């Protein structure tokens, strides 16, 4: 179980605190800010989770950051996404 320390912002948290990690292609600041807002609204409305209990981080990556198995870079070899970006 993760322990969430006070970040110095004075946000009161409950035992229901969660960390949401989003793996995605690069997004604008505006897109991220809107995502944080909408995610908290959704979780509060649908699951009863307080916005103060939702921590979010984005992990940005591109095609060359992925292997879906077998030690291959499927996006780069063209097995996924069409045209090969490298010679296998």
Automatic annotation (TrEMBL):
Pfam families to which the protein is assigned, alphabetical: Tautomerase_2 (PF14552)
SUPFAM superfamilies per the UniProt record, alphabetical: Tautomerase/MIF (SSF55331)
Matches recorded under InterPro entries: Tauto_MSAD, Tautomerase/MIF_sf
Entry superkingdom: Bacteria
Name of the featured protein: 4-oxalocrotonate tautomerase
């Amino acid at each position: 179980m993760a322990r969430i320390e006070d970040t110095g912002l004075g946000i009161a948290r409950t035992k229901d605190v969660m960390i949401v990690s989003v793996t995605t292609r690069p997004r604008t600041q505006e897109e991220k800010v809107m995502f944080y807002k909408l995610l908290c609204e959704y979780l509060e409305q649908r699951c009863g989770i307080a916005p103060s209990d939702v921590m979010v981080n984005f992990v940005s990556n591109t095609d060359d950051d992925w292997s879906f198995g077998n030690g291959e870079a499927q996006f780069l070899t063209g097995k996924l996404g069409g045209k090969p970006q490298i010679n296998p």
